[in-house]
C-alpha cells in the first residue's frame, strides 16, 4: 500500500526524492562512463544524494543508488585507464 506523497513529513519526502535522484544519477553514470567528466560527476552526485537520503531513512532505493553510482565510478576509472594505456 502506497502512502500519499503529499502527506509525508517534509524531511521524509526530501529523503525519498534524494533516493530516487541517486538511483537516476547512478543509471545515467553507467551510460555516461565513457565520457570521464560526465560519468565522474554524475557518479559523485549519485553517491552524495544516496548518503544524504540514508541519513533520514534507510531505503533500498538509496542503497541501490549508491551501489549503481559506485559501479559508474568504477566504469569511468577503468575507461580512463584503458584510454591512457592504449594512447598513441
Structure write-up:
- Helices cover 80% and strands 0% of the residues.
- It has 88 residues and is mostly helical.
- The protein has one domain.
- Helix 2 (36-56) packs antiparallel against helix 3 (60-85).
- The termini are far apart.
Counting helices, strands and paired strands, the structural category is mainly alpha
Approximate helicity band:
over 70%
Q: What is the typical, i.e. mean, pLDDT?
A: 87
Topology as a string of helices (H) and strands (E):
HHH
The gyration radius over C-alpha positions equals 15 Å
Largest sheet: none
Low-confidence spans:
none
If helices are DSSP runs of H or I spanning 4 or more residues, what is the number of helices?
Answer: 3
Q: Please indicate the percent range of residues in DSSP E strands (runs of 2 or more).
A: under 5%
As for the number of domains, it is: 1
In terms of quaternary structure, the protein is: single chain
Which shape, going by the Cα principal axes? Answer: elongated
From the N-terminal CA to the C-terminal CA, the straight-line distance is: 58 Å
Number of strands: 0
Amino acid at each position: 500500500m502506497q502512502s500519499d506523497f503529499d502527506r509525508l513529513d517534509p524531511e521524509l519526502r526530501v529523503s525519498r526524492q534524494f533516493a530516487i535522484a541517486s538511483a537516476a544519477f547512478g543509471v545515467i553514470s553507467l551510460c555516461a562512463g565513457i565520457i570521464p567528466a560526465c560519468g565522474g560527476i554524475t557518479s559523485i552526485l549519485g553517491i552524495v544524494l544516496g548518503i544524504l537520503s540514508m541519513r533520514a531513512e534507510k531505503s533500498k532505493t538509496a542503497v541501490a543508488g549508491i551501489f549503481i553510482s559506485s559501479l559508474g565510478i568504477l566504469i569511468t576509472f577503468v575507461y580512463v585507464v584503458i584510454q591512457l594505456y592504449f594512447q598513441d
